[in-house]
Write a structure and sequence with these properties.
Elements (H helix, E strand, L loop, with lengths): L2 E5 L1 H18 L11 H9 L3 E8 L2 E12 L7 E10 L8 H13 L5 E3 L9 H6 L19
Length: 151
């Protein structure tokens, strides 16, 4: 059974690298390399605007969820926890692990945010779990890489 914890950038940055590579392989349709700006993450964390949660099988890192936690720029009275990145290794997606991880994140964020927002990619759609938890689709985001971007 896996367990969950709130951790810091400094504590997990090195350990996350192999998982980021596996995550990148799953979302390879994105032409940008999954390479978090750890300096920016640490600055946001120091300002109280970042939360990192991990899933572990004993001491082994099995997944992560990172949230930006900020006052919403155009709803001044709302504190928003916006999921930035989420990954749970394939063997741990069975059973109730993903649900338990979402529930853990929600419990940790409920004191810091008025609204929690998750993203679900079309090619890796896990929105059924979110709907099961009471979430609703609020916006659809369309993206297009500009033609002059060289990656």
């Amino acid at each position: 059974m896996i367990g969950f914890a709130a951790e810091t950038c400094a504590a997990v940055v090195e350990e996350l690298q192999p998982l980021l590579a596996r995550h990148q392989a799953e979302v390879e349709s994105i032409r940008f390399v999954l390479a978090p700006d750890w300096t920016m993450y640490q600055a946001l964390e120091a300002a109280g605007a970042l939360a990192i949660f991990t899933a572990r099988d004993g001491a082994r890192l099995a997944g992560y969820a990172v949230f930006f936690v900020v006052k919403h720029p155009h709803y001044a009275g709302m504190r928003l926890a916006q999921n930035d990145i989420l990954f749970l290794e394939q063997p741990y997606r069975r059973g109730r692990n993903a649900l338990r991880f979402v529930e853990y994140c929600e419990a940790q964020l409920q004191w810091r945010a008025d609204r929690i927002a998750w993203s679900a990619k079309h090619g890796h759609d896990w929105s059924r779990l979110l709907v099961h938890r009471g979430y609703r689709a609020d916006e659809v985001i369309y993206v297009r890489d500009t033609p002059w971007v060289q990656v």
